């Protein structure tokens, strides 16, 4: 089941594995570059791997347990919002357990967003407070909420946006507001300060390298972000419709702060241009949306039940409710996401890694853009062509913000070629390449349209499906490890657009 994991999950695993092996939290051994934004996830996986738990299993266990915990917390949150006798808790928990977007990034995706959902929901639960709790208990709950929200920020820095409405909730308390605000903020500030000190001491920078590689805001980026947001709205349309009927006067005071955090986060996602992985960054907001949407439908049903024709609508309402749950259980993260091609693409990366393990020298260097599965399973020195793990490209590379994949919009192919890697791996199959198809990624197209690149790197043709692999022609030792047919049959091959100097449409 390894193929189910998203490619980016293996970037974190590579950092954690190297740390567990004693090399420190590094992507390439000996190079201190912070190419991740999920410090708590790395910190949690490292001891598990050190104890002998396989990395992929550790990720799936951690993500699965976090997802299960989030579902349970939605049940408890529903009780705190609507009362113990309300159906909101169990109904929302069921809806979340069947929600395709949530389940996809909990189990197949296995990303840190499942842990982020858990810590945020737990923090919200404590922030609401137990009904009838005394003053000391409320102070303890506020401190606990601060710890959990601090852990959320260590999981993903942008979770700090959820702290804004949380602070407003505390400041609206009637008693001991300064103390409660301090208890809420102090744990998170302490954790973030500790991470900053560690980052500065170990990596030599105040910000992660990913910040320099990813940040670039313009109208094209914002437009793409709005499309990303619209995709989420369409995928969760039933829940947004339900939110219209939510009983704001009755339950709004408890639910509104958390929904406000979601709204702030959605605006932020639109501003940064969204994400290239389908709805991944919405994952931890889905539980709150589920609570509000399901709460709206329950309120609507209660209103209809009190009318003269309430009995007549019970069965149709139940049928529509079941149909809605079935709709939300679509296997993909959103209805436009194709499961089979995704599985095939990930499997190609595994096949590519397997082939490289049998043919590459351990001292070889590979340049690529998919920096997860292949580097993790080969452990080759990796040149990240889009700069997430390369400070030069992140800071000085050419920016194509708004034209590429979100977060992968810087490159410097002259710099990469100057490093003379033994291998290149590109996100197009050899068959597609030989048929004249163009890569969808601009930086790969920029590379392939150079005749001098083909003069130096002939195409390799493994006997089973892989991504495009190219090997440096003057690496005599490497050529000795190849079967003659794996490279000689492609000798002299140059795609038509390399001679024309073409560029992808729209660039």
Please characterize this protein's 3D structure.
By secondary structure, the chain is mainly α. It has two domains: 2-328, no CATH class; 339-500, no CATH class. 60% of the residues lie in helices and 4% in strands. It is built from 24 helices and seven strands. The strands form two sheets. Strands 2-1-5-7-6 form a five-stranded mixed beta sheet, with no helix packed on it. Strand 1 (365-368), helix 17 and strand 2 (381-384) form a beta-alpha-beta unit. Helix 11 crosses helix 13. It is elongated. One of its GO terms (cellular component) is plasma membrane.
Topology at a glance:
Elements: H1 9-20, H2 39-50, H3 55-82, H4 88-97, H5 100-106, H6 113-128, H7 135-155, H8 163-171, H9 177-202, H10 209-214, H11 219-235, H12 237-244, H13 248-272, H14 286-305, H15 310-328, H16 339-359, E1 365-368, H17 373-378, E2 381-384, H18 391-396, E3 398-399, E4 410-411, H19 413-418, E5 423-426, H20 430-434, H21 442-448, H22 451-456, E6 459-460, E7 468-471, H23 476-480, H24 496-500
Parallel strand pairs: 1-2, 1-5
Antiparallel strand pairs: 3-4, 5-7, 6-7
Helix pairs in contact: 1-2, 3-4, 3-5, 3-6, 4-14, 6-7, 7-9, 8-9, 8-13, 11-13, 12-14, 13-14, 14-15
């Amino acid at each position: 089941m390894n193929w189910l994991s998203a490619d980016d999950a293996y970037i974190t695993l590579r950092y954690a594995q190297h740390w567990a092996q004693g090399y420190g939290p590094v992507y390439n051994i000996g190079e201190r570059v912070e190419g991740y934004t999920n410090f708590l996830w790395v910190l949690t996986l490292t001891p598990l791997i050190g104890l002998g738990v396989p990395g992929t299993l550790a990720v799936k266990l951690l993500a699965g347990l976090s997802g299960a915990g989030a579902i349970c917390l939605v049940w408890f949150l529903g009780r705190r919002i609507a009362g113990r006798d309300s159906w909101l808790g169990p109904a929302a928990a069921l809806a979340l357990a069947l929600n395709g977007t949530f389940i996809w990034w909990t189990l197949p995706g296995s990303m840190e967003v499942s842990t982020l959902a858990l810590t945020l929901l737990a923090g919200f639960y404590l922030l609401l407070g137990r009904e009838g709790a005394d003053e000391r208990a409320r102070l303890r709950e506020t401190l606990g909420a601060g710890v959990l929200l601090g852990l959320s920020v260590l999981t993903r820095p942008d979770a700090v946006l959820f702290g804004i409405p949380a602070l407003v909730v505390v400041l609206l308390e009637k008693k001991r507001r300064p103390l409660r605000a301090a208890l809420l903020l102090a744990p998170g500030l302490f954790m973030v300060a500790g991470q900053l000190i560690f980052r500065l001491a170990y990596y030599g920078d105040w910000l992660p390298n990913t910040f320099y590689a990813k940040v670039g805001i313009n109208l094209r980026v914002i437009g793409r972000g709005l499309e990303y947001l619209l995709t989420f709205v369409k995928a969760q349309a039933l829940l947004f419709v339900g939110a219209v009927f939510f009983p704001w006067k009755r339950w709004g005071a408890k639910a509104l702060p958390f929904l406000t955090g979601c709204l702030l986060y959605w605006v932020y996602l639109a501003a940064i241009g969204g994400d290239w992985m389908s709805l991944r960054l919405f994952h931890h907001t889905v539980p709150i949306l589920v609570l509000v949407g399901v709460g709206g439908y329950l309120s609507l049903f209660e209103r209809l039940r009190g009318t003269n024709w309430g009995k007549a609508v019970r069965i149709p309402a139940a049928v529509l409710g079941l149909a809605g749950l079935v709709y939300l259980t679509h296997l993909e993260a959103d209805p436009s996401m194709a499961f089979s091609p995704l599985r095939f693409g990930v499997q190609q990366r595994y096949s590519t890694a397997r082939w490289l393990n049998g043919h590459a020298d351990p001292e070889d260097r590979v340049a690529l853009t998919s920096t997860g599965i292949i580097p993790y399973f080969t452990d080759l020195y990796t040149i990240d062509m889009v700069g997430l793990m390369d400070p030069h490209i992140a800071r000085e590379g050419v920016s194509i913000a708004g034209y590429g994949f979100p977060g992968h919009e810087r490159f410097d192919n002259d710099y990469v070629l100057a490093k003379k890697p033994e291998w290149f791996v590109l996100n197009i199959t050899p068959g597609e390449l030989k048929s004249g198809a163009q890569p969808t990624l601009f930086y790969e197209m920029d590379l392939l349209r150079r005749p001098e690149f083909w003069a130096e790197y002939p195409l390799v043709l493994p006997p089973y499906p892989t991504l495009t692999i190219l090997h440096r022609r003057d690496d005599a030792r490497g050529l000795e490890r190849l079967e003659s047919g794996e490279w000689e049959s492609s000798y002299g091959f140059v795609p038509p657009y390399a001679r024309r100097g073409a560029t992808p449409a729209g660039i």
